Predict the 3D structure of the following.
Amino acid sequence: MLATKVGCNMSDTVELVECLQKKPYRELVDQDIQPARYHIAFGPVIDGDVIPDDPQILMEQGEFLNYDIMLGVNQGEGLKFVENIVDSEDGISASDFDFAVSNFVDNLYGYPEGKDILRETIKFMYTDWADRHNPETRRKTLLALFTDHQWVAPAVATADLHSNFGSPTYFYAFYHHCQTDQVSLEQFHENGNVDLQ
């Protein structure tokens, strides 16, 4: 956990927050945080103040009825999970695709019953049958699987729940392919900011 790596006491929440706030940003971002497989390291936390309870419970209790909500997704948000697959830059072999789907199911689905059916269903749904032998296409569909699981499904569920109460709900899907050289994450990490002009 980040707090332990930078020497902050985790037994007292107030003390922990104060300690983290005093740390230079460089010390925080330089830490190697390894979340569980197919999870992200940081996300919203039910803290009792900003997020007082599980958002689904709050929505079901009508806490957000007076608010418009806009949420959405971006293409390729699951790239972090595809990058670690061997030779993913050149596409993904059929065996690597099968292994990645099996590994995904094994890491996220806690029940042994039905894992085989779930694996085969995911492979079927995330295979582009018109171009199933293309390694690059397999890479794209695997990226879609990880993006759908971590970002699309929760965003759609949230939008659906909010709209069920008749509250204004707006959803976007951002799909843009940059035409210029992409700024590397490493460049951003080294500088703390990047001049995009």
User: Anything to note?
Assistant: The chain is about 45% helix and 5% strand. The beta strands are 69-74, 169-174. Residues 135-164 form the longest helix (30 residues). The mean pLDDT is 85.
